[in-house]
Design goal:
By secondary structure, the chain is an all-alpha fold. The protein has one domain. Helices cover 94% and strands 0% of the residues. It is built from two helices and no strands.
Length: 90
């Protein structure tokens, strides 16, 4: 009976060690995936910014309907800059 008990304890200890190794592996994988998400998010934000700049440039170079859209965007940007300057002056 003591031998059976010892074998069960050894089995449980072995399972615990395997679980700890698996946990460590999963933590490393989680860390790597988190880093990948950060890199992808940064790349996405950069592409989004470039896309908006391209749309604005296209609108400025366009005519008629696009020039009206460009004026609206430029006016919005100017208002934002004015707000920032006002905040800096206070």
């Amino acid at each position: 009976m003591v031998i059976s008990f010892k074998e069960k304890i050894d089995t449980i200890v072995s399972m615990l060690e395997e679980s700890e190794k698996e946990r460590e592996r999963l933590q490393k994988e989680k860390s790597q995936l988190s880093e990948q998400i950060k890199l992808k998010t940064t790349a996405f934000e950069e592409l989004e910014r470039r896309y908006e700049n391209l749309k604005l440039a296209k609108a400025i170079l366009g005519s008629g309907e696009n020039s009206h859209e460009a004026r609206i965007k430029v006016n919005r940007i100017v208002r934002e800059i004015d707000k920032c300057i006002a905040l800096l002056n206070h």
